[in-house]
Task: inverse folding
């Protein structure tokens, strides 16, 4: 074990009032509640486990097929299938706590009212959460989802209403599908958000040239994986430069070198998503890789490396 | 389930696009049951194309030598990569995955295994398991053409009670396994049917069985997968539960074995 890993402080960071032991999170929807992945490594080592997005009621999601692989990427049209927030409260939270996971709860609502109702439900367990992430950017649902990013004015009330109900750091997750990230981040900050997560998936599609049918029953889906990394990195860099709020960077991160690239581009923490599917222990490897890199570069804390590329460019 | 690396002992060509891959893995041999599958990385270590692991049913387990095998058809990039792997290289895979087949061996029932195309692969492990326990089995296989010609010697080692049908009559009997089932449905009753193959075949079997009595029918389903372990919700199919409610179930972790009569084909 190297110095940085031994001295946990070197990798730690704060978002709002929460302390995270390291900057490696896993992305909503790619890790469920972490229970499955705990068969491969101790998930309590992660900076945070971001849960699948929960809505107020159970959601059945979109019709299959829901997945199509593209060059170094994948399209998904899951459509936020989830068991509803009560399932998180009654079943999943307990399991995640037993495993020692630091939890970011991702929530999703069609409108401010639904978000408020979910917030009221999580009020009683808010102390168990490191943060709440508001998924305002799902490309696969008809109501809510990335419509918030299409009209960022709607983001303000959601954030401020939730902030009034719960006392947990709030992360707003944004979409790259509209040119509204900076505007949305400013509105989020003005209404009390503590950080921005970018990027959610990029809308895309694929067709079968023999049957002329779309590859996904939903026709369109969200692109993720290595194919989107340069796009994600650019969005992170551009937003981080503005110094509006701390940025959690994600999109295609598949190895520690990718993670370091996001950190030097200004992300205070990073999220691993699609890469978990290919290598279920990759996020643990990324923590070790970042620590090793910091030692070799002589960085003794994350602060020293975050945003290095902004300073240089 | 574990993330594993196992040495390839052989990668034999069985037909024009059909291969059998033998892999050393004490863990799989100890823990896997028929119907379970593995998710294989079908590209070099850091390559990102093809990106996702590919699922394959476990075809054979040889506990004496700690070797399991996969039987696969080359379809696209991933399986083409697999076909180029050589003896001595390591296979990177996750497994065993899925619920698998759990048999009540004292039920006094016969087993009818019906495979279409590469769907025969996981059924062979089930057949070997049942034959070892001296259960009565009938294996019915259906193929388009003679690609599976060399496979016959494998099933013949497990049971003599098998029928092979091909659409073009190039080997076995000319015809469809489903026509055989329909014609013999009365004398086959009091059986457990286990089917794996294209959804068109499974749908026909479902239709035949709707009006038949004395059968339990299980099916092994396929859907495109990402995580393979129940985390991403990518691999769902529609199931009509006993109480009539329609739900999405994950092929990778709720399945791949489902009650055939509950599957909704669209
Ligand atoms: C539980 C399970 C068990 C399987 N067992 C076997 C097996 O024992 N032997 C075997 O040869 N194949 C098996 N398959 C199918 C195998 O996973 C696909 O053939 C393989 O993923 C194709 O990869 P590719 O990169 O070569 O082709 P791609 O370029 O990805 O696709 C080529 C063609 O294969 C189809 N295909 C791709 N992935 C799947 C999938 N997951 N399920 C169904 N069709 C798919 C595509 O629709 C396309 O028509 C199984 C699939 C599942 C889900
Ligand atoms: C199968 C799948 C399901 C996802 N579900 C969610 C979700 O429920 N909520 C959410 O905010 N993002 C969801 N995402 C988006 C990811 O959290 C992430 O933002 C995106 O995939 C980019 O990161 P990656 O390339 O590392 O996967 C999902 C992505 C995938 C691939
Ligand atoms: S493939 Fe991810 S849930 Fe089945």
Result:
């Amino acid at each position: 074990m190297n110095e940085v890993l031994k001295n946990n402080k070197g990798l730690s960071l704060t978002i709002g009032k929460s302390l995270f032991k390291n900057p490696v999170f896993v992305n909503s929807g790619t890790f469920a509640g972490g229970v499955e992945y705990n068969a491969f490594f101790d998930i309590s080592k992660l900076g945070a486990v971001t849960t699948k997005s929960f809505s107020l009621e159970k959601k059945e999601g979109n019709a299959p097929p829901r997945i199509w692989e593209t060059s170094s990427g994948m399209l998904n049209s899951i459509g936020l299938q989830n068991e509803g927030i009560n399932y998180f409260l009654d079943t999943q939270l307990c399991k995640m706590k037993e495993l020692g996971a630091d939890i970011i709860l991702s929530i999703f609502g069609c409108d401010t009212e639904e978000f408020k109702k979910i917030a009221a439900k999580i009020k009683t367990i808010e102390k168990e959460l490191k943060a709440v992430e508001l998924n305002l950017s799902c490309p696969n649902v008809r109501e809510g989802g990335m419509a918030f990013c299409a009209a960022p004015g709607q983001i303000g009330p959601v954030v401020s209403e939730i902030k009034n109900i719960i006392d947990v750091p709030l992360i707003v997750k944004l979409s790259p599908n509209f040119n509204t990230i900076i505007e949305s981040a400013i509105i989020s900050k003005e209404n009390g958000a503590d950080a921005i997560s970018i990027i959610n998936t990029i809308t895309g599609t694929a067709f079968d040239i023999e049957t002329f049918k779309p590859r996904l029953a939903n026709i369109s889906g969200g692109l993720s994986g290595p194919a989107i990394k340069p796009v994600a990195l650019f969005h992170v860099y551009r937003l981080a430069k503005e110094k509006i709020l701390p940025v959690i960077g994600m999109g295609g991160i598949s190895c520690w070198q990718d993670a370091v690239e996001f950190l030097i581009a200004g992300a205070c923490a990073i999220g691993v998503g699609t890469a978990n599917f290919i290598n279920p222990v990759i996020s643990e490897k990324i923590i070790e890789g970042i620590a090793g890199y910091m030692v070799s570069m002589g960085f003794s804390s994350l602060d020293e490396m975050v945003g290095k590329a902004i300073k240089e460019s | 389930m574990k993330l594993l690396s196992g040495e390839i002992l052989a990668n034999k060509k069985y037909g024009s696009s059909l291969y059998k891959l033998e892999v050393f893995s004490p863990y799989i041999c100890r823990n896997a049951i028929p119907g379970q599958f593995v998710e294989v990385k079908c590209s070099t270590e850091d390559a990102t194309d093809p990106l996702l692991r590919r699922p394959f049913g476990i075809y054979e387990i040889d506990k004496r030598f700690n070797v399991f095998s996969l039987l696969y058809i080359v379809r696209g990039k991933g399986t083409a990569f697999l076909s180029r792997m050589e003896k001595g290289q390591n296979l990177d895979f996750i497994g065993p995955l899925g619920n698998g087949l759990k048999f009540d061996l004292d039920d006094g029932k016969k087993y009818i295994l019906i495979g279409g195309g590469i769907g025969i692969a996981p059924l062979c492990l089930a057949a070997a398991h049942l034959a070892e326990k001296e259960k009565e089995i009938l294996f019915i296989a259906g193929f388009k053409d003679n690609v599976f010609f060399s496979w016959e010697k494998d099933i013949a080692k497990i049971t003599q009670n098998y029928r092979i049908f091909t659409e073009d009559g190039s080997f076995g009997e000319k015809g469809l396994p489903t026509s055989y089932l329909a014609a013999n449905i009365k004398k086959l009753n009091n059986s457990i049917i286990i089917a794996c193959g294209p959804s068109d075949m499974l749908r026909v079997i479902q239709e035949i069985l709707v009006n038949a009595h004395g059968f339990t029918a299980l099916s092994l389903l396929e859907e495109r997968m990402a995580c393979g372990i129940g985390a991403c919700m990518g691999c769902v199919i529609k199931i009509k539960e006993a109480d009539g409610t329609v739900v999405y179930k994950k092929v990778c972790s709720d399945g791949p074995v489902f009650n055939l009569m509950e599957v909704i084909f669209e």
Q: What stands out?
A: Residues B 225-228, 230-235, 250, 252 surround FE2/S2 (inorganic) cluster (ligand 3) (CB under 6 Å). Chain B touches chain A through 32 residues (CB under 8 Å). Chain B is about 20% helix and 35% strand.
